[in-house]
Design the sequence.
């Protein structure tokens, strides 16, 4: 079991603020949402499953609040209502309420994030909430809400300093989002006896990929089998990358659990899958004529890097594959590089600022020990992107990966160079 000192940032004894009222998350009968809630945890895939749930619910005509993290470019990406960013004034008001109610209790950045989302969602006229766990599950701030269905997308080695050194330890922490009698949806193909043990101990029905639900790919596209909401959707409906079919099927398995309260027709599922947008998840940017293409992916641990490598190998280009890579200091850069070796013909390692940041030169020194191709260092993501673009030919592609802190600045740079259309997301204004 992970020691309590390692959970300074996700304490059970924090005072939570909800609708202007303070209550304790350890044993009190706090207020809970009146609408269905989907809670999503996992090492990789949380953001994608969240996006599929939101897109399908919106296609069915429902108003949805979603809380995700981290953000790529703008903090307001984390809290969205009806597919709009939270309004800055409403966010400020929520923070002010939290500040008054917390008294002498210290809250972390993420706890402020989560509390603000809960306050804002509670005040809005929503039909459903989709809540993404920040880290782990059992002691995460989001876990103050009792989900109607809990989803765990995958179990991998990440955040070991908080969650434990083994997959079993990490699985037990993530299983903390399960609730007695509420369905636990498991999205990973590798069985986890710990997840099953915890779920059965709470009398939580299990829905496991390839057991209680599944999908197949055929000439017609994505076919969801053993789904009450099952349908066939065009293969292009899911974002490019095989893992996205798994994420889509997992999202639908979760939506089935709230279908008795919210009618979700098959047409809404097909439309949601077709309309969903997943920035930074094997995001392809079509080049202008005579220019290299770009791939943006937030893969930041070995499991995610393995998925990225598979996608790159499944979608080869005529030319070379160049990498712009930035990886935080607390991530397994050597493990990521070893997996990506063979997919990349040259590397540009970018510096990432902040307390967890790593310089481009420090990253380059790690990468050089794992690969036998040229590795260069850059003092920023922008300069790394510029250098890679200068070296690229029209048949090449440039893959930007390693962190949200890498992909976000890369999108800023691509927009500034006219290589990516500006993205404008309106703010949600309460009526």
Sequence:
């Amino acid at each position: 079991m992970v020691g309590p000192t390692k959970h300074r940032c996700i304490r059970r004894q924090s005072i939570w603020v909800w609708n202007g009222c303070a209550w304790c998350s350890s044993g009190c009968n706090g207020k809970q949402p009146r609408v269905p809630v989907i809670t999503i945890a996992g090492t990789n895939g949380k953001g994608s499953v969240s996006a599929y749930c939101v897109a399908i619910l919106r296609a069915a005509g429902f108003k949805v609040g979603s809380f995700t993290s981290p953000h790529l470019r703008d903090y307001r990406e984390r809290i969205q209502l009806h597919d709009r960013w939270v309004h800055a004034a409403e966010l400020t008001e929520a923070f002010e309420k939290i500040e008054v109610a917390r008294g002498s209790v210290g809250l972390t950045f993420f706890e402020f994030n989560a509390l603000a989302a809960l306050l804002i969602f509670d005040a809005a006229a929503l039909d459903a909430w989709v809540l993404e766990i920040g880290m782990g599950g059992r002691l995460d701030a989001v876990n103050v809400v009792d989900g109607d269905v809990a989803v765990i997308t995958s179990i991998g080695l990440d955040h070991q300093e908080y969650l434990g050194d083994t997959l079993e330890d990490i699985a037990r922490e993530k299983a903390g989002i399960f609730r007695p009698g509420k369905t636990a949806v498991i999205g990973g193909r590798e069985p986890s006896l710990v997840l099953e043990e915890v779920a059965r101990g709470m009398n939580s029905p299990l829905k496991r990929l390839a057991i209680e639900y599944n999908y197949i790919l055929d000439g017609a596209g994505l076919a969801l089998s053993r789904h009450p909401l099952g349908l066939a959707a065009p293969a292009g409906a899911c974002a490019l990358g095989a893992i996205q079919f798994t994420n889509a099927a997992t999202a639908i398995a979760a939506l089935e659990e709230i279908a008795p309260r919210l009618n979700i027709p098959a047409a809404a599922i097909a439309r949601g899958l077709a309309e969903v947008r997943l920035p930074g998840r094997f995001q392809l940017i079509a080049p202008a004529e005579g220019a290299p293409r770009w791939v943006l992916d937030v893969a930041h641990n070995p499991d995610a890097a393995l998925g990225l490598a598979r996608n790159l190998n499944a979608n080869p280009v005529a030319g070379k594959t160049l990498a712009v890579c930035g990886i935080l200091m607390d991530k397994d850069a050597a493990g990521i590089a070893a997996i990506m070796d063979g997919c990349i013909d040259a590397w540009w390692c970018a510096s990432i600022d902040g307390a967890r940041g790593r310089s481009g030169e420090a990253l380059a020194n790690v990468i050089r020990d794992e690969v036998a191709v040229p590795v260069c260092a850059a003092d920023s993501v922008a300069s790394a992107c510029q250098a890679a673009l200068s070296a690229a030919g029209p048949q090449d592609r440039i893959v930007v990966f390693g962190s949200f802190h890498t992909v976000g600045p890369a999108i800023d740079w691509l927009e500034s160079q006219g290589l990516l259309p500006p993205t404008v997301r309106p703010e949600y204004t309460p009526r």
In short: The CA atoms of residues 239 and 278 lie 7 Å apart.
